[in-house]
């Protein structure tokens, strides 16, 4: 196994949130754009209550998705043809481009104990799986997408760590090659909140299959660190204990958008989720004390780069 945590720590915790982008509550839904008055404010409250907790904000460079499910129903019902079209309206190009939202970028850059990482360029794709940005493109197309995503973050002045959670979890082999070539430190693709916890559990739910569910590992022929997600708001505290008792990484996932077009994200950031996490983290602090490494995906990938 990789040496992925300090020797004096028995287990670790990280917390990541997907879909951060500048949308405000005056848009179709809020995704961080209301700053401390919106969902990010709730996240800051949680960070305040737990001074060792860190968060990774997976942020999209130029978000264009409005609905994650097809709204052009007739077109969506025609096999093959539907794969060639966007099946829901998109935001106009550059409306959510980070380059056009300096106040939002400054807010993210200055959030305490928060690191920013990549969550795609547009967060859309043609066909039925709208949010799954990386699908059947060619390697050259992946290169273009990743290059433009990185360019926008640079140009907008985002203080970013070199890791990505691919939208909709999907990380095809040729994407991993591109990420390796562009010196990404980590990818967070696998998410499994159901497989029972054992030390040799592997991902069987979303994203890269068969990678370890409790520990970081190497993918793409050892070229890049993979960090799994194994817990969300609907998971029980026993699952968290089982992960920690196996010396694993309790990797908690949330999504920034709670409700969009009548679809409610079970792991969307709201008062109830934040209160649940507050209670969960309090129990862990009391039961495990200093045995826990409170860390972030960026820190873990740095540790791995240094000690392996
Ligand atoms: Zn997403």
Approximately what portion of the residues adopt beta-strand conformation?
15-25%
Please summarize the sheet with the most strands.
9 strands, mixed
In DSSP terms (H or I, runs of 4 or more residues), the helix count works out at 8
Helix content: 25-40%
- Total strand segments: 11
Fill in the CATH topology. Answer: TIM Barrel
Tally of separate domains: 1
Encode the helix/strand succession as letters. EHEHHEHEHEEEHEEEHEH
- What characteristic shape results from the CA principal axes? globular
Residue-averaged pLDDT: 96
Structural class, from helix and strand content?
A: alpha/beta
Low-confidence stretches: none
Tell me the CATH superfamily: Glycoside hydrolase/deacetylase
CATH-defined architecture: Alpha-Beta Barrel
Ligand set: zinc ion
> What gap, in angstroms, lies between the N and C termini?
10 Å
> How large, in whole angstroms, is the Cα Rg?
19 Å
Structure write-up:
Helix content is 29%, strand content 15%. By secondary structure, it is of the alpha/beta class. It has one domain (11-307): Alpha-Beta Barrel (TIM Barrel), CATH 3.20.20.370. The strands form 2 sheets. Strands 1, 2, 3, 4, 5, 6, 7, 8 and 11 form a 9-stranded mixed beta sheet that branches. A two-stranded antiparallel ribbon has the order 9-10. Helix 4 links the parallel strand 3 (114-118) and strand 4. Helix 1 (39-49) packs parallel to helix 7 and helix 4 (139-156) crosses helix 5. The longest helix has 18 residues, at 139-156. The N and C termini lie close together (10 Å). The model has no long low-confidence stretch (mean pLDDT 96). The site of zinc ion has 6 residues, from strand 1.
């Amino acid at each position: 196994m990789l040496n992925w945590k300090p020797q004096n720590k028995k287990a670790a915790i990280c917390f990541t949130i997907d879909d951060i982008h500048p949308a405000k509550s005056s848009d179709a839904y809020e995704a961080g754009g209301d700053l401390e008055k919106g969902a990010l404010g709730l996240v800051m409250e949680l960070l305040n209550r737990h001074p060792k907790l860190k968060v990774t904000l997976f942020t999209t460079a130029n978000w264009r998705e409005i609905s994650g499910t097809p709204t052009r129903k007739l077109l969506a019902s025609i096999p093959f043809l539907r794969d060639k079209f966007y099946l829901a309206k998109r935001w106009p190009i550059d409306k959510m481009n980070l380059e056009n939202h300096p106040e939002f970028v400054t807010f993210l850059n200055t959030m305490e104990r928060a690191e920013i990482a990549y969550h795609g360029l547009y967060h859309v794709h043609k066909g039925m799986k709208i949010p799954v940005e990386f699908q059947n493109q060619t390697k050259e197309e992946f290169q273009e997408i990743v290059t433009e995503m990185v360019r926008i973050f640079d140009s907008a002045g985002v203080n970013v760590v070199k890791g990505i959670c691919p939208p909709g979890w999907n990380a095809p082999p040729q994407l991993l090659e591109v990420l390796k070539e562009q010196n990404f430190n980590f990818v967070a693709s696998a998410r499994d909140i159901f497989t029972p916890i054992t030390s040799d559990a592997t991902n069987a739910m979303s994203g890269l299959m068969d990678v370890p569910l409790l520990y970081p590992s190497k993918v793409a022929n050892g070229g890049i660190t993979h960090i799994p997600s194994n817990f969300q708001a609907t998971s029980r505290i026993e699952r968290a204990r089982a992960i920690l008792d196996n010396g694993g990484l309790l990797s908690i996932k949330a999504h920034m958008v709670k409700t969009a077009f009548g679809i409610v994200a079970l792991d969307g950031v709201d008062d109830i989720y934040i209160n649940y996490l507050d209670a969960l983290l309090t129990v862990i602090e009391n039961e495990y004390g200093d045995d826990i490494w409170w860390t972030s995906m960026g820190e873990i990938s740095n540790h791995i780069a240094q000690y392996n």
